[in-house]
Design goal:
Rossmann fold; 45% helix; alpha/beta; signal; five-stranded parallel sheet
């Protein structure tokens, strides 16, 4: 005869399985908003619709952002799908944000590439308009990723490099939706795929700092956060993992070798 503890444990497993299964079977944009507070936007149309829904509450802010995006960010970018860039588009992410950004900037210097900040210049001045933790602020940053992509598409004579692109945001959303690493959706799930209307990077690097190494002040977040992010990035397609234990310069050199191996014939590191 089952004990009370065994019965409660089985009941808990059924609850977890039922809740998780429901999320697995739907894309994030198909879920009701109350079950999808973080919102992983799957297209530019959904981003714009989300912003326009807030126009009654904050008409000036939404108007400023959407007009700047259309008039300034899009520019001369060819928006015919699938989006492409003339030169390599490289994304550097990591479980330590500072290391990823600094290594990305160092790589840009070595490659004579353009480093694109997030948000990009055409939308950066509007970040203060939206309160942290709100849906409209997340929509603003989603729009900023499209703006950054269009910026990269218009760089004609050198590579573009950035941090904080789609993979970084998707990993954050997934890590919050699935607190237990063992309950992450399978690799085949659409949540691991980029929106079809967003520029796909030629290379994505993920810089990871293994947390079995002690006494290194790389982050203040709980250690269990990082291994789960690594598991999520392992489910994305075509990600190169770079170990940071030997320092930023070593990591930068490793990325440089990989970039030159694939794109050396297209990159002139000596040009001004």
């Amino acid at each position: 005869m089952a004990t009370l503890k065994q019965t409660n444990f089985c009941f808990l497993i059924l609850i977890l399985f039922g809740a998780t299964r429901g999320i697995y079977e739907k894309g994030l944009d198909d879920m009701p908003q109350q079950n999808n507070p973080l919102k992983l936007f799957s297209s530019l149309d959904i981003v714009m619709d989300t912003l326009l829904m807030k126009q009654l509450d904050m008409p000036l802010q939404v108007d400023l952002v959407t007009k700047a995006f259309t008039a300034t960010c899009v520019g001369d970018a060819n928006l015919t799908l699938p989006l492409t860039s003339k030169m390599p588009f490289i994304v550097v992410e990591g479980n330590t944000v500072i290391d990823a950004m600094e290594a990305g900037k160092n790589l840009a210097m070595i490659l004579n590439a353009r480093f694109i900040n997030m948000p990009p210049p055409c939308l950066r001045q509007f970040a203060y308009l939206f309160q942290k933790g709100t849906t409209v602020r997340r929509a603003y940053f989603a729009l900023s990723r499209y703006a950054a992509a269009y910026t990269a598409m218009q760089v004609k004579n050198k590579p573009s490099i950035m941090s904080g692109y789609w993979h970084d945001h998707a990993a954050f959303v997934l890590s919050r939706m699935y607190p237990t690493p063992g309950l992450l959706p399978p690799r085949s799930h659409p949540m691991y795929r980029m929106p079809n209307d967003l520029l796909k990077p030629d290379i994505v690097f993920y810089m990871y700092f293994p947390f079995e190494v002690e006494n290194q002040p790389f982050t203040t977040k709980a250690p269990f956060w990082k291994p789960k992010l690594i598991q999520i990035f392992e489910k994305f397609d075509d990600v190169y993992f770079i170990d940071v234990r030997q320092g930023r310069q070593y990591a930068t050199n490793e990325m440089f070798k990989i970039v030159m191996e694939y794109f050396g014939d297209r990159i002139n590191i000596d040009s001004g």
